[in-house]
């Protein structure tokens, strides 16, 4: 469960990006293809387990690479495609995501404490 606002925001951004990517590359009807559905599901689970929670930076800057390689490859593809487009279609969401990414990085992973 994503209880923190920060995490809900992150989840919303990811969902938007995956949707954009899938509509353009796989399923123009607007429903996610099974592969992208799986990816979205995976990202939400990772977010729920993220040790940073409210202090989370954007995933691209996170020092903990918690995605397994296959999912990491897929999400990178999505970001590469949807990132620049988001800037045009959802400038406010993008700006906020950028600011979240600028947040001061916590020094140590809470998981290792
Ligand atoms: Zn897809």
Kindly state the percentage of residues in helix.
55-70%
Content-based structural category: mainly alpha
What average pLDDT do the residues reach? 82
Portion of residues in beta strands equals under 5%
Query: CA-to-CA gap between the ends?
Result: 23 Å
From the spread of the alpha carbons, the general shape counts as: globular
What's the helix and strand layout?
Elements: H1 5-25, H2 34-49, H3 69-89, H4 91-102
Helix pairs in contact: 1-2, 1-3, 1-4, 3-4
The structure holds zinc ion.
Descriptive report:
The chain is mainly α and 113 residues long. The chain is built from 4 helices and no strands. It has helices spanning 5-25, 34-49, 69-89, 91-102. Helix 1 crosses helix 4 (91-102). The relative contact order is 0.18. Bound molecules: zinc ion (ZN). Residues 22, 26-27, 32-33, 35-36 line the site of zinc ion.
What is this entry, summarized?
The protein has 113 residues and is an all-alpha fold. Helix content is 62%, strand content 0%.
């Amino acid at each position: 469960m994503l209880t923190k606002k920060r995490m809900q925001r992150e989840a919303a951004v990811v969902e938007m990006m995956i949707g954009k990517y899938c509509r353009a590359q796989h399923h123009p009807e607007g429903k996610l293809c099974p592969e992208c559905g799986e990816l979205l599901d995976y990202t939400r689970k990772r977010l729920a387990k993220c040790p940073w929670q409210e202090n989370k930076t954007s995933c691209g800057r996170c020092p903990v690479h918690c995605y397994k390689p296959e999912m990491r490859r897929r999400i990178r593809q999505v970001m590469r495609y949807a990132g620049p487009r988001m800037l045009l279609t959802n400038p406010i969401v993008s700006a906020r995501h950028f600011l979240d990414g600028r947040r001061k990085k916590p020094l140590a992973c809470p998981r290792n404490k």
